[in-house]
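Sequence design from tokenized structure. All designs in this work follow the same two-part layout: the structure record, then the generated sequence. An example of the structure record is given first.
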């Protein structure tokens, strides 16, 4: 048993020795991120941008550096650069879905609402995130897309029913009722003939609300 443990330790040590630059790069990038955050706190934004950029130059997979740089660019009123940062982050780490939210907000600020809504809807569907659905519904409302707003609130209603979230359930029912009145005959979920099972499900939810 001792011999086996020694062999495993030796193998781990060999791996570490074979990749010292990778480990050192990660440590250096994390330290630069820490410094960048400290400079942000001190309102030294230009220095913070440089530190985040330096961290990414060392370790392009550092999620904290991408997130920090994107958020800082947005806070500095540069959504175009923020979008570039989030897009680059998604290319390198597509599994980090939170970057979709950052890019969506950057695109919304740039007036590219269709792309923004697509990003946020993708994130909301992947994460089943009520907060993202709520924000998406607000965007649809701002754009005057009431049927899409209604469909999104119905998703929130379905989520509330599944999770027994009483507060959200009351709000969703109230909002769906109001939006159904606004949409009136253009509500796809109220159509009596519709072969689409998704829309049939929406119609069932609508009937439960009334």
């Amino acid at each position: 048993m001792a011999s086996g443990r020694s062999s495993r330790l030796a193998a781990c040590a060999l791996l570490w020795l074979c990749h010292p630059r990778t480990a050192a790069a990660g440590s250096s990038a994390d330290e630069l991120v820490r410094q960048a955050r400290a400079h942000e706190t001190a309102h030294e934004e230009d220095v913070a941008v440089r530190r985040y950029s330096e961290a990414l130059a060392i370790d392009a997979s550092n999620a904290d550096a991408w997130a920090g740089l994107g958020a800082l660019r947005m806070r500095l009123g540069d959504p175009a650069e923020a979008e570039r940062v989030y897009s680059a982050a998604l290319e390198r780490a597509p599994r980090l879905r939170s970057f979709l939210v950052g890019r969506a907000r950057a695109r919304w600020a740039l007036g590219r609402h269709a792309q923004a809504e697509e990003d946020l809807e993708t994130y909301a569907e992947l994460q089943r995130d009520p907060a993202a659905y709520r924000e998406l519904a607000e965007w649809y409302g701002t754009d005057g897309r009431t049927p899409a707003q209604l469909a999104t609130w119905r998703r929130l209603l379905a989520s509330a029913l599944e999770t027994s979230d009483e507060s959200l359930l009351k709000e969703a029912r109230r909002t769906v009722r109001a939006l159904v009145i606004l949409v009136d005959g253009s509500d796809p979920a109220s159509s009596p003939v519709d072969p689409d099972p998704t829309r049939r499900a929406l119609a069932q939810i609508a009937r439960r609300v009334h």
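Confidence is low (pLDDT under 50) at residues 5-23, 190-210. We note this feature because it recurs in several other targets discussed in the main text.
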